[in-house]
């Protein structure tokens, strides 16, 4: 893993630092993590790591296209190492759980009715809904409510 990242970073003119490598390993192992989660995990391995260093590296790696930043409405930015495959996300409105999904089409998936002459290559698609757990919780709450009414 280290060698693959080293080559990747080198191809983007980025040096391989301990924090950078650790950050990439954390994001690879825990996709869709936010900066705080990444910081906590990196700090366990590199106690001198700072949150500012994490933000700086996340920015640099996102700009280089090595990691992808997802900004769901109402959420902080999330990061993943899965880039350039045009995958989308399903996000739970209830608990914020997020999963990868492919859609039926190829990039940009959705065709604008009028592209105004733009060469469109991407559509940002987020599927919102309720995860299985939250759907189940809702049913349970309903039953509890009915139970309390019956008593
Ligand atoms: Zn949920
Ligand atoms: Zn993803
Ligand atoms: Zn799509």
Provide key terms for this protein.
binds zinc ion; 14% strand; 43% helix; alpha+beta; three-stranded antiparallel sheet; 151 residues; three-stranded mixed sheet; Dna Ligase, domain 1
Radius of gyration: 20 Å
Here the CATH topology of the largest domain equals Arc Repressor Mutant, subunit A
Quaternary structure type: single chain
- How does the helix and strand content classify structurally? alpha+beta
Number of strands: 6
By CATH reckoning, the class of the largest domain would read Mainly Alpha
Helix content: 40-55%
CATH superfamily label of the largest domain: Winged helix-like DNA-binding domain superfamily/Winged helix DNA-binding domain
Record the strand order, biggest sheet.
Answer: 1-3-2
**Strand-residue proportion:** 5-15%
Protein model, in words:
It is a single chain. This protein is α+β, with helices and mostly antiparallel strands and 151 residues long. It folds into 2 domains: 1-84, Winged helix-like DNA-binding domain superfamily/Winged helix DNA-binding domain (Arc Repressor Mutant, subunit A, Orthogonal Bundle), CATH 1.10.10.10; 86-111 and 120-151, Dna Ligase, domain 1, CATH 3.30.1490. The chain is built from 5 helices and 6 strands; from the N terminus they run ααβααβββββα. The strands form 2 sheets. Strands 1-3-2 form a 3-stranded antiparallel beta sheet. Strands 5-4-6 form a 3-stranded mixed beta sheet, with no helix packed on it. The radius of gyration is 20 Å and the shape is flat. The model has no long low-confidence stretch (mean pLDDT 90). Residues 88, 103, 105, 109, 125 line the site of one zinc ion.
